[in-house]
Structure formats: C-alpha cells, structure tokens
Amino acid sequence: MRVLLIEDEAPLREQIAAHLRAQGYAVDVAANGNDGCFMGTEYPVDVAVVDLGLPDIGGIEVIRRWRGADRKFPVLILTARGRWQDKVEGLETGADDYLVKPFEFEELTARLRALVRRASGWTESALTCGPLVLNTGAQQLRVNGAQVELTAFEYKVIEYLMMHAGEVVSKTTLAEHVYEEDADRDSNVLEVIIGRLRKKLDPDKTLNPIETLRGRGYLLRLPRS
Ligand code: CA
C-alpha cells in the first residue's frame, strides 16, 4: 500500500514515515503543500496523511484540488489541538478522517488501515478470501488456520492482491503500489516474489491462489467473504 505523507515539521515527518514503513507501507513524503499536491495528483496513492498547517498552500486547499481533479483516495488530516474549525472544514472539503496532534502512531496506522480497507470494499479488519485470512493489523497471514511466515516484501504483495481480490492487477500497478516513488523497481523481483508466495500459500498446489493472466497481470480469484 502506498501512502503519501504531507507534513512540514521534519522530525515528525521522519518519525511518521519510519513508523509507516515499519508497518509495511511504501511512503512518499512531501514537506509542503505544492509538492504534496503534485504527488497526490500524479502518483498512485492508496491513502494520504495531510497536515493542515503547511507553509505554502494549506492542507485544505491541497485536498480541494485533489477532489476537484477527481482524485478519490482516502485522506486523513492532522490538525492542531484547539482548531476544531479546521477539522470541520477538512472533513467538508473531502477528508475522510482526522487526528489531533499529538497522537499515537499506533492510532494513526489503525485508522489508515481502516480507510484503505473501506476504500477497497472491505468491512472486517481481517481480509478473508477462501482459506486465506490476512490480519492487516498484525501483518499476519493464515491459510486454513496455519500461520504462514512472510518476509516484509512478500507481505506487501499479498496484502495488495488480497485487498483487490477479484480484480486483475497488472504488474505495473502492483509495482506502483508496493514500491515508493524513488525505489528501484524490478518486475523480475516481483515475479520471484509471486513464485515464492505461491509455494508458501499453496505447497500442495490445490488452491492456485494467484493466477497469472498472460499479458494482463495477476488475479486472486478466491472468493471474498
Ligand atoms: Ca504544520
């Protein structure tokens, strides 16, 4: 999952980014409204965290421009304590949730997970596709009740595919949502990861959890429940 973070306070920005990366997100960061606005317009963002008090254009204006350009990803705003009007204005402009500073990073990630899930049509905190159950909070995957050990990158890939179960996900799209903008992307690496996931999820080759559609991409066809 790709998160865009716009925050002008450098120490806070770095702390949030580090926490989100530790939670399996690919994180793009912006230190001002103009850069952040551009990134949200051009990058394949899954969810955005927007500080409202920015040095150039404010967070409200950034969200207004995104929504005006039909960018629909969920947005969580960060507001200063005591500025309740900002919260109201942010939500009315199209933000989906808010946190008042200072906040616990765990609360931020829990809220982001909920926003991403809902945007993909999931209501439960665990994603269930046939015998696959993914707990996005604990970053844990079970197949028929047995836990599967995954590397951080394997987790990112299966999380994206399960989040979009039933949809064809092209290799480009998958790469765009598991790598940050500045990352060195290699589609051969993704193929290797998919191969490893198939072995780990389906050692007996009975499930075929990830199908390859030649020239189109990958499909997790197991039914959502
Ligand atoms: Ca600020």
Written description of the protein model:
- By secondary structure, the chain is of the alpha/beta class.
- The protein has 8 helices and 12 strands.
- The chain has a 5-stranded parallel sheet, sandwiched between helices.
- A hairpin with a 2-residue loop joins β6 and β7 (132-135).
- α6 packs across α8 (187-201).
- The protein is elongated and about 55 Å long.
- The protein starts with a strand and ends in a 6-residue tail after the last strand.
- The mean pLDDT is 95.
- Calcium ion is lined by residues 8-9, 51, 53-54.
- Calcium ion (CA) is lined by residues 8-9, 51, 53-54.
Write the layout of secondary structure elements.
Blueprint: E1 2-6, H1 10-22, E2 26-30, H2 33-42, E3 47-51, H3 59-68, E4 75-79, H4 84-93, E5 97-100, H5 105-119, E6 126-129, E7 132-135, E8 140-143, E9 146-148, H6 152-163, E10 168-169, H7 171-178, H8 187-201, E11 211-213, E12 217-219
Parallel strand pairs: 1-2, 1-3, 3-4, 4-5
Antiparallel strand pairs: 6-7, 7-8, 8-9, 10-12, 11-12
Helix pairs in contact: 2-3, 3-4, 6-8
Bound molecules: calcium ion.
Calcium ion (CA) is lined by residues 8-9, 51, 53-54.
